[in-house]
Write a structure and sequence with these properties.
The chain starts with a helix and ends in a 24-residue tail after the last helix. The protein has a two-stranded antiparallel sheet with strand order 1-2. By secondary structure, it is an all-alpha fold. It has one domain: Up-down Bundle (Sodium/glucose cotransporter). The longest helix is centred in the N-terminal third of the chain and has 49 residues. About 70% of the residues lie in helices and about 0% in strands. Helix 3 runs parallel beside helix 8, helix 3 runs antiparallel to helix 10 and helix 16 packs across helix 18.
């Protein structure tokens, strides 16, 4: 579970964001422990009691098969975006190492990960994640040690430079200047308080609805083992992520002492900031050690790519193909379909990464936050509606989905300047997902009370907090 949540975003995008900007986009991660506690004692029982394979089986049991399909398709789209972002980052490293073109690097990395994931299945995903996570953490430690050795004033020198230049601040980069954000409630600006709200909704969705995590809930031997995994994440993930943000800050201090034209270009935006880690590894580290660190970066990417590809194939087969198209074939048939689904996902991953090669973004961490907010808006609200109410039904949920979809399309078109000025979005795109969750929950609940009053004739045992059967699930 830790390996899945630590990727090339951790190894390349976090340091890049800290190097170019400050620590604003790390702020949402501080809410992870709270989300994990809620997931362990609130969400987890729903999935363990009903013995599901995919997270979206719950949506059918609670609402209807059509809602299950909607949840599955939304997940697949979100994961395809995530795959493209991560593969793009690892292709940067491969390009720097091998000298191959950026497109060739995307193709090589994408094909290798797809191949072993398709052949090895969930066992390959789990055990390679374990090994890759260990390599990743060790690689980062090696980089920091070398930076400290090269700094004239050692470890404290990093803090002196970073503090003087406001690099630890909760600040936004605007017009080349780091400006500290306020802590007020505001939908139009990035503030400290709002970034915490964004983080809480993102992590609740991740650990309450995401198939990457739910398939591990389902695979654990018991409730106790599943909670152990969650608690480990809550304790270790934030320090690991913070460590890689600090690496970016340390790299900033290093290149203030040892300036280079390339590092300056990455700081001012002439080159993508995500190149800073590969640049340091290849130019300032001994060859043997650089090889170990490069392995760590590749491992970071693979540990997330394989999980997402595997989850997409599981959802495609279990929630769509087997449930609605071909119901009575043997396991071998569904295995072959899963391979095909994984291969198709890999193709989309590669195409998406190539598109990102030519995209103009502030940082990939920034782009990823916006894309996740827009694409996944409303999904957590839909699950929460199922968990905490007995009134909501399929028709009311579809009403909420329609309203939320219109809302998401509006935000995207308005921010692209397609719509008239009178339809300008009055809030930052970072908040699209959070508002979408609230919008779906509230509109669907209101619709169930005033429009679609007739309740579905469904057995809700173990599907809401009000209808638990009380049996032990340990």
């Amino acid at each position: 579970m830790i390996g899945t949540s630590i990727s090339s975003v951790t190894f390349l995008a976090y340091p890049a964001d800290a190097y170019k900007t400050a620590w604003l986009r790390f702020l949402p991660n501080y809410t992870l422990p709270f989300a994990v506690l809620l997931a362990a004692y609130f969400f987890l029982p729903f999935f363990r009691r009903t013995k599901i394979i995919s997270a979206y089986e719950y949506l059918e049991d609670r609402f209807s098969p059509s809602i299950r399909i909607y949840g599955a398709i939304t997940f697949i789209i979100g994961q395809l975006i995530r795959l493209a972002l991560i593969l793009f980052l690892v292709s940067i490293l491969m390009h720097e190492i091998t000298g191959y073109s950026a497109i060739t690097s995307v193709l090589l990395a994408g094909v290798v990960v797809a191949a072993y994931t398709i052949v090895g299945g969930i066992d390959a995903v789990i055990w390679t994640d374990v090994l890759q996570t260990i390599i990743l953490v060790l690689g980062g430690i090696v980089i920091l040690i070398l930076i400290v050795i090269e700094m004239p004033g050692g470890f404290s020198h990093i803090f002196e430079i970073a503090t003087a230049d406001n690099k630890f601040a909760i600040a936004e980069l605007t017009n080349g200047q780091l400006n500290p954000v306020s802590w007020s409630f505001s939908l139009s600006d990035k503030t400290g308080l709002m970034m915490l709200f964004v983080g809480l909704t993102v992590w609740l969705q991740e650990y309450g609805t995401n198939q990457n995590v739910i398939q591990r809930y389902a695979a654990a031997r018991s409730m106790k083992e599943a909670r152990k995994g969650l608690f480990t994440i809550g304790i270790l993930n934030v320090p690991i992520w913070a460590f890689y943000m600090f690496l970016g800050t340390a790299l900033y201090a290093f290149f203030q002492v040892n300036p280079s034209p390339e590092a300056i270009e990455m700081l001012n935006g002439t080159q993508k900031a995500e190149h800073i880690m590969p640049f340091f590894i290849l130019n300032y580290m001994p060859p043997g050690i650089a090889g170990i660190v490069i392995s760590a970066a590749l491992a970071a990417a693979m540990s997330s790519l394989d999980s997402s590809i595997n989850a997409i194939s599981t959802v495609t087969v279990n929630d769509i193909y087997r449930r609605h198209f071909v119901k009575d074939k043997d396991d071998k048939h569904y295995l072959h379909v899963a391979w095909i689904a994984a291969a198709v996902a890999s193709v989309f991953m590669i195409i998406g990464a190539i598109i990102l090669l030519f995209a103009d973004t502030k940082t990939i961490q920034d782009a990823g936050t916006i894309l996740a907010s827009v694409v996944m808006g409303g999904v957590f609200g839909m699950y929460l509606l199922g968990f905490v109410t007995t009134r909501a039904n399929s028709k009311s949920v579809w009403f909420g989905i329609a309203i939320t979809f219109v809302f998401s399309v509006w935000t995207v078109l308005a921010k692209q300047g397609v719509l008239p000025e009178s339809l300008t979005v009055p809030f930052d795109l970072y908040y699209t997902g959070m508002i979408g969750h609230i919008l779906l929950f509230s509109t669907a609940f209101v619709a169930s009370v005033f429009i679609f009053k007739k309740r579905d004739n469904k057995d809700l045992t173990n599907l809401t907090i009000w209808t638990q059967d009380g049996e032990s699930i340990e």
